[in-house]
Design brief:
17% strand, 31% helix, DNA polymerase, domain 1, 5-stranded mixed sheet, two-stranded antiparallel sheet, elongated, Ubiquitin-like (UB roll)
Length: 209
C-alpha cells in the first residue's frame, strides 16, 4: 500500500512547469475526459452543406408556431410533439402511438402534413408550424371543424385533431376533392372508432367558402 511518503518520492524531473507532476496531470486529464463540456452547437459539413450538431445537453431552440416565435431549451432527442405539448401547452396534437403510425399528432409544416412525434424539435427550426389550435379564429370554428361537428365525424376524439389538420391540408390542395383523393390524402390517419363515413362526408362538405 502506498503512503504519503511514497508520494513525496516522485522524482523532481517528473514535475512539469507550474509544479504539476505527470501523475497529477494524468489525474486531471482523466477527470476532464469523464466530464466533457459542450458549449453551444458545433457545425460539420455534410455533402457540402453546413449542419449544426447539438448535444448532449439541452440546447436553446426557436420555433415558429401558429405565427408566434417561441423559444425553449430542449435535449436534441426531444420530439416536436413533446415540445408542443409540454413546453408550449399546445395539446391539440395527441400523443397516441408515438411511432408515426396513427396520425393523431399531425401538424402542418410549411403547409404540408407531418407527424409531430417523428420530427425532432431541433429540426423544426426555420419552418412554419401550424397546429389544430391555429384553425379557430376569434372563437369561430374553421369550416372543416364545423363540418366534423355537423357530420358526427368523431367519437372518442383522440384522432380528431390529426384528422382535422390533415383534412385542412387536403382541401387546401384540392378545393373540391374527389372520394378517391379524400381516401388517399387521409390514408396516414387512423380512427380506432371507425368513423370514416362521417369523416369523408365532413371533408367533402367542409371546404372553405
Amino acid at each position: 500500500m502506498k503512503t504519503k511518503d511514497d508520494e513525496d518520492l516522485i522524482p523532481v524531473e517528473e514535475q512539469q512547469e507550474g509544479g504539476v507532476s505527470r501523475r497529477d496531470f494524468l489525474k486531471i486529464s482523466s477527470i476532464a475526459a469523464a466530464a466533457p463540456m459542450v458549449v453551444g452547437p458545433t457545425v460539420v459539413k455534410v455533402a457540402g452543406a453546413e449542419v449544426p450538431v447539438y448535444g448532449p445537453g439541452a440546447a436553446s431552440i426557436t420555433l415558429n408556431v401558429n405565427g408566434k416565435t417561441l423559444k425553449t431549451n430542449v435535449e436534441p432527442r426531444v420530439t416536436l410533439l413533446d415540445v408542443l405539448r409540454d413546453d408550449f401547452d399546445l395539446t391539440g396534437a395527441k400523443k397516441v402511438c408515438d411511432r408515426g403510425e396513427c396520425g393523431a399528432c399531425t401538424v402542418l409544416m410549411d403547409g404540408k402534413t407531418v407527424y409531430a412525434c417523428s420530427m425532432l424539435a431541433i429540426d423544426a427550426q426555420g419552418h412554419k408550424i401550424e397546429t389544430v389550435e391555429s384553425l379557430t379564429a376569434g372563437g369561430n370554428l374553421h369550416p372543416i371543424q364545423q363540418a366534423f361537428v355537423d357530420h358526427d365525424a368523431e367519437q372518442c376524439g383522440f384522432c380528431t385533431p390529426g384528422f382535422v389538420v390533415a383534412a385542412k391540408a387536403l382541401v387546401d390542395k384540392y378545393p373540391n376533392p374527389t372520394p378517391e383523393q379524400i381516401t388517399h390524402e387521409l390514408a396516414g390517419n387512423f380512427c380506432r372508432c371507425g368513423t370514416y363515413a362521417g369523416i369523408r362526408r365532413a371533408v367533402g362538405e367542409g371546404k372553405e367558402a
